[in-house]
């Protein structure tokens, strides 16, 4: 089953961030809130986007699909996998480096 | 900026930093106070814009076009800053500054692009005012690297040095930089506008793949003039530039370009981003109608306002004076004996050197394409050492090539062996310029927000497969170019073998083209079959090389064999198992 998560880039430094209903914008996909249905994700996305612009927290905010495999969260598209980890050709950089 | 169109006061170095530096003889235009004031004002403006964005005075929608006008993109992992390297020429003072910025504000490396620029991939928005301030200290900026303006003008990386040069393209590229950087008519063009200029019969700047490609030449009387090609371009709709005028005298150089840009500005489409480039306008109007419009506009331009005065040209030319080269014999016994005694050095010398116009000197191409490496990437540590080497061996000057390599343009043949050993020590002595390992690749989906597929891992796999330098040399000239999306930053359309990354229902696939050519015999490659996986693409290239080696005649290059035997044998072999 695919879930949805919300992501964007932090305004001040461009870092990839994910949305958590309680904590706001967090740096790890594992800490993001997941949404089972599209409608819920779209509603929260709209609110998160508005809040991000108002409080100047994140830009380019969008929802994306995530699979949960053996407890691990894996974005469905290669683009979102690379965003959540870092460049596949430089595994010493990005979020994957600190994993 | 309230300034005359062109400036060329003689003498030069501006106040301060350059006069006694090791790079004081580098062939680069030295900024005067007006240039510096202009760049400083732009830094101040952008600093204020960043502050207003961070404080909420500007929305993202309002801020985005402003940051793009200062070379700042938002990519997958962070902001990316694209720094202009006008016509690809840098002093070592500037190169050292780029290294420092990489270390201080990024992650210790940078990436050279097919526009002869440098990109940093991990930039923080809040740091950009400071970065631009540091760049301004060494007469650098990020202007004309983004947005719908005339982009950084590119030229031959061997300019001012090559034995086959007829006219020094730097002079005219600099004139274009001055003419376009603050030109009010050309700040909001329908779309971006790329110009390349060459000054020899060999095309090392991919002239006919540009919006405007210029070939500088001399007539029988020795006068300088220009051939103009218009409407070339790659991307979604590739076109080969069409000849618009065979000879434009030097005095009309700027006027003729002004006329082309005015016609584009007037008729170019602004309603559809995919049809906004000048290539579409030329295609839709037809070259004859387009030419007629340009000629009419050219005739209307008032003279002498648009006349490029000879003394202005000569003043700018004086700023690119040759470094104080020694009078040396054409042949170097030191160089020859080292070649005889060291096969690796001999191979590097055969592959990576080009003929210099001055006896006893050579042009050195420094490959940024180690086997299995990331094309165009260089670490700050490598940059530091290369800077020292350029100071010691090449008058404090480093050039960037559109093939994502670097050049030391004026090296004594006597010094080549010492230079090679030191390049080798920092991993920059790969002997593959123009060979199969010298792959052009865009950043692709590893970094770029527009990409559909990764480019770099495929480039790494191909260069690793063909890592053996002897095999590469035996194969000879063969250019592979890889783009991660149809925008074609990796120039795949004009690769002898071109590869386009596509997204097929969520999977990365690679579409292979064959027969492209980026030189004056420009050709767009043909797709040879269905897209394949990364692994299959590497195997397909191996197969194409086998077909070529089995069919080539003596001295025949890969592209020549393709032209002689057609694509059929290649296609049949690759897809034989299907």
Topology:
The complex is a heterodimer of chains A (99) and B (578).
Chain A: E1 2-10, E2 16-20, E3 24-26, H1 38-54, E4 58-69, E5 72-75, H2 78-85
Antiparallel strand pairs in A: 1-2, 1-4, 2-3, 4-5
Chain B: H1 33-55, H2 60-68, E1 72-74, E2 79-83, E3 89-91, H3 92-105, E4 109-112, E5 118-123, H4 128-137, E6 154-155, H5 169-180, E7 195-198, E8 212-218, E9 224-230, E10 242-249, H6 253-267, H7 278-285, H8 287-300, H9 310-318, H10 333-341, H11 343-352, E11 353-355, E12 361-366, E13 377-379, H12 380-393, E14 397-400, E15 406-412, H13 416-425, E16 440-441, H14 456-465, H15 469-475, E17 480-483, E18 497-504, E19 507-514, E20 526-527, H16 534-551, H17 558-565, H18 568-574
Parallel strand pairs in B: 6-7, 7-8, 16-17, 17-18
Antiparallel strand pairs in B: 1-2, 2-5, 3-14, 4-5, 4-13, 8-9, 9-10, 11-12, 12-15, 14-15, 18-19, 19-20
Helix pairs in contact in B: 1-2, 1-4, 3-12, 6-8, 7-8, 10-11, 14-16, 16-17, 16-18
What is the CATH superfamily label of the largest domain in chain B? Sulfite Reductase Hemoprotein, domain 1
What composes the largest sheet of chain A?
5 strands, antiparallel
Q: Major sheet of chain B: order of its strands?
A: 1-2-5-4-13
For the residues shown, what is the average pLDDT of chain B?
94
CATH class placement of the largest domain in chain B = Alpha Beta
The most extensive contact between chains is: A-B, 25 and 30 residues
CATH architecture classification of the largest domain in chain B: 2-Layer Sandwich
- Number of spatially distinct domains of chain B: 4
How far apart are the first and last residues' alpha carbons of chain A, in Å? Answer: 25 Å
